[in-house]
Amino acid sequence: MIIVASGLLALALGANFYPRRAATFAAETDRSAYQSGEPVGIWVLLKAGGNAPTTVLWDGCEVSFTVADEGRKVMGPSPFTLACWGLSGKAPIVLQPGQDLGAHFTWNQDTTSGSPVAPGHAYEIRPIMTSDFVQSNDISLGTVSAWISIG
Questions:
Q1: Is 3.40.50.720 the CATH classification of the domain at 20-150?
Q2: Domain spans in the chain, listed from the N-terminal domain onward
Q3: Residue range 100-117: average pLDDT?
Q4: What φ, ψ does residue 61 adopt, rounded to 5°?
């Protein structure tokens, strides 16, 4: 029994020291519910996880977001805007675990045609990148959307 417990403890401790690299491309909002017509603050983030530095290569730096309705049909925003993370060209980015790289946007609840979205519904905010992302360090890039409701 003691041998099994000490073996499990050694395995758990070893797993904590084994380098794990992870990254998530995410959209986050400042709140989860908004009144109709109220500006929505959106962050598009590259978030490092794991327990070791994560190096990624970004061919350019343009990111943005799209908005989809409950049926997952893209319907906004208008105008489509881009942001850059302050990087230029093909530059490696080294992120420490827990470090984020982000761009901020404001969405005025308009569709691609310029009309307001319908109140009383939920909308998915999806992060997008318009330049190539080249993975490094054998990481997989997860993508996370944010959901908001418009009252």
A1: no
A2: 20-150
A3: 91
A4: -155, 15
Q: Report yes or no: 35 and 151 within 8 Å, Cβ to Cβ.
A: yes
Is pTM beyond 0.90? Reply is no
8 contacts: CB under 8 Å, gap ≥ 6: none
The amino acid at 130: T
pLDDT in tens, 32-61: 999 999 999 999 998 888 888 888 776 666
- For residue 11, the model assigns a pLDDT of 45
Tokens, residue 132:
């190539």
Long-range contacts of 38-42 (CB under 8 A, 24+ apart): 38/109, 39/106, 39/107, 39/108, 39/109, 40/106, 40/107, 40/108, 40/109, 40/125, 40/148, 41/104, 41/105, 41/106, 42/104, 42/105, 42/106, 42/107, 42/125, 42/146
> Which residues lie closer than 8 Å to 136 by C-beta, 6 or more apart?
54, 55, 56, 57, 92
User: What integer best gives the mean pLDDT of the chain?
Assistant: 81
Task: Tell me what the mean pLDDT of segment 1-10 comes to.
Answer: 52
